[in-house]
């Protein structure tokens, strides 16, 4: 009997060992069969680990290398996530823990609104790093990846300082004389920032106003005069209203350039530098009853290469403190990115298939185009195909454009067709899929478009799909793929698009022996 029992026990033990061994082998197989960093249709181009970081462009085999050939249509490669959303959330810092360090003392009402109105209880690394510096009234440049909460990083300490100054000051300001000016390149972004600021100012005496372009003449003919503390404005609108004397800038203590890369583009530079020269940035830390010093703050996910040269016209750049994220100008590590080679004629059919799939899953989709005409076409095509789509681009009249983005944000419509107007700074937390119907011709635009998904507060998996159809698009894709294979910085991230275009035109004119215009010749 004992022998039989002993035998049964040995058999049972062996079975247990066999079961554990099978499970271990299964885990090993799962690890070995886990998704590579880059998954290609032609498996010889799959990548399991990064190539050497110092590898120069052109020295590595690329899946997209042969895409210039007509027969490459139908090829694709996928950049798989290297970091999970859970890992990103684990890097967040508790708000209470941050405040306990004593680096910043938040006004009680501001803290209450932050938690109750915005439902924020955790801070990102860039917020925790930037807020004490901004609160210390230093000129600050916040350069960090899209979707990491840069707006709150400057807005919270600026509102905090404004509330504290309000209790100390006895001198009353005139109407239309703000103490904070936030400049943005777009109307939708100005609206969004003013909404966040309004929520943070609930229960305080601070007045927030958004000043949008498109109806400036009406405002000049029938000006409104009211109390305003926080003014969020587009550059074109505020510059005209200040010139005509409707708004006064002599009491502004904080000037913010949100999406500074776009505002520092050559198309804005002259107007911006002329406007900024009116502020006494050099007196920022000087305590003087007659002159109010002004703090300059800049926030962006990409910066022009000539940023210092532009800012030197209005401020001593050595006084600007930089808060730079280690992830700046890198590919988003937590978002899947697909690159599909196809002909232009195949794009509408593929767009319709993807849009139907996403609508069946109720996953909000943003479709980007390079031109307003293409954005119009995408919207008309999808609506005619039975898919409700909102169109938003810079060529639309303000009365038509106003509220379009809010319709997408509120879930009235789940598909947004837009140009790069919709890629700068807008908080599209509910979006799950970005589709580049036209692939961007500049790396900085690709960074901003991808940044509409995978943002702080998004917990679901996100996807970027890219349609690649032209020679110029393939050139940009090859440089992005090279950066993905080495794990290094994205190349040529120069947000000064107008400057890039002008240089290319002039180089082509030089090649063709065409005389250069006198004002632009170097």
Text of the CATH class of the largest domain: Alpha Beta
- CATH architecture title of the largest domain: 3-Layer(aba) Sandwich
Based on CA inertia axes, which overall geometry fits? globular
The helix tally amounts to 19
Please characterize this protein's 3D structure.
This protein is an alpha/beta fold. It folds into 2 domains: 38-86 and 331-503, 3-Layer(aba) Sandwich (Rossmann fold), CATH 3.40.50; 93-324, P-loop containing nucleotide triphosphate hydrolases (Rossmann fold, 3-Layer(aba) Sandwich). The protein has 19 helices and 17 strands. It has an 8-stranded mixed sheet, with helices on both faces. The termini are far apart. Mean pLDDT is 84; it is low at 1-13, 20-33 and 518-522.
Summary tags:
522 residues, disordered C terminus, single chain, Rossmann fold
Provide a brief overview of the structure.
This protein has 522 residues and is α/β, with parallel strands linked by helices. Helices cover 40% and strands 14% of the residues. Strand 16 (433-436), helix 17 (443-450) and strand 17 (463-468) form a beta-alpha-beta unit.
List the helices and strands and how they pair.
Blueprint: H1 2-32, E1 38-40, E2 76-79, H2 85-90, E3 93-94, H3 95-100, H4 108-116, E4 122-123, H5 125-135, E5 139-143, H6 150-168, E6 180-184, H7 187-200, E7 208-211, H8 216-221, E8 230-234, H9 235-243, E9 254-258, H10 260-263, H11 266-276, E10 295-300, H12 307-311, E11 320-324, E12 336-341, H13 347-360, E13 365-368, H14 372-384, E14 390-392, H15 398-401, H16 404-409, E15 415-418, E16 433-436, H17 443-450, E17 463-468, H18 471-486, H19 497-511
Parallel strand pairs: 5-10, 5-11, 6-8, 6-9, 7-8, 9-10, 12-17, 13-15, 13-16, 14-15, 16-17
Antiparallel strand pairs: 1-2, 2-12, 3-4
Helix pairs in contact: 5-6
């Amino acid at each position: 009997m004992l022998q039989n029992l002993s035998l049964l026990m040995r058999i049972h033990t062996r079975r247990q060992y066999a079961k554990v061994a099978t499970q271990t082998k299964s885990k090993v197989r799962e690890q070995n069969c886990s998704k590579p960093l880059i998954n290609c249709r032609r498996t010889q181009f799959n990548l399991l680990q990064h190539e050497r970081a110092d590898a120069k462009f052109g020295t590595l085999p690329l899946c997209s290398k042969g895409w210039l050939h007509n027969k490459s249509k139908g090829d694709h490669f996928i950049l798989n996530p290297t970091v999970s959303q859970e890992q990103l959330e684990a890097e967040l810092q508790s708000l209470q823990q941050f405040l306990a360090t004593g680096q910043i003392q938040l006004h009680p009402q501001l803290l209450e609104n932050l938690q109750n109105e915005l439902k924020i209880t955790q801070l990102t690394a860039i917020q925790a790093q930037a807020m004490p510096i901004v609160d210390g009234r230093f000129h600050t440049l916040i350069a960090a990846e899209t979707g990491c909460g840069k707006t709150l990083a400057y807005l919270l300490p600026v509102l905090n300082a404004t509330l504290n100054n309000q209790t100390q000051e006895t001198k009353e300001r005139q109407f239309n004389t703000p103490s904070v000016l936030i400049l943005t390149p777009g109307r939708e972004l100005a609206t969004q920032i003013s909404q966040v600021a309004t929520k943070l100012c609930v229960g305080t005496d601070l007045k927030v106003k958004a000043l949008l372009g498109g109806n400036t003449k009406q405002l000049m003919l029938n000006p409104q005069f009211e109390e305003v503390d926080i003014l969020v404005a587009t550059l074109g609108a505020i510059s005209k209203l200040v010139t005509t004397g409707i708004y006064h800038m002599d009491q502004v203590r904080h000037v913010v350039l949100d999406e500074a890369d776009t505002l520092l583009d050559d198309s804005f530079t002259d107007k911006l530098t002329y406007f900024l020269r009116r502020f006494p940035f050099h007196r920022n830390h000087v305590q003087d009853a007659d002159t109010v010093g002004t703090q300059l703050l800049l926030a962006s996910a990409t910066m022009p290469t000539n940023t210092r040269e532009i800012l030197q016209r209005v401020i001593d750049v050595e006084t600007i403190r930089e808060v730079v994220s280690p992830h700046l100008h890198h590919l988003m590590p937590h978002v899947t990115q697909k690159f599909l080679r196809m002909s232009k004629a195949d794009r509408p059919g593929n767009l319709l298939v993807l849009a139907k799939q996403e609508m069946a899953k109720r996953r909000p989709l943003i479709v980007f185009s390079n031109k307003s005409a293409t954005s119009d076409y995408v919207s008309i095509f999808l609506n005619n195909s039975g898919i409700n789509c909102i169109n938003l681009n810079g060529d639309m009249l303000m009365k038509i454009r106003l509220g379009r983005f809010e319709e997408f944000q509120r879930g009235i419509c789940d598909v947004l067709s837009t140009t790069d107007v919709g890629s700068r700074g807008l908080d599209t937390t509910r979006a799950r899929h970005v589709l580049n119907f036209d692939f961007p011709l500049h790396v900085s635009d690709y960074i901003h478009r991808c940044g509409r998904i995978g943002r702080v507060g998004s917990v679901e998996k996100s996807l970027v799909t890219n349609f690649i159809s032209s020679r110029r698009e393939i050139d940009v894709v090859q440089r992005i793929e090279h950066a993905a294979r080495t794990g290094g910085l994205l190349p040529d991230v120069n947000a000064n698009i107008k400057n890039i275009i002008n240089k290319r035109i002039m180089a082509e004119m030089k090649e063709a022996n065409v005389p250069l215009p006198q004002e632009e010749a170097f």
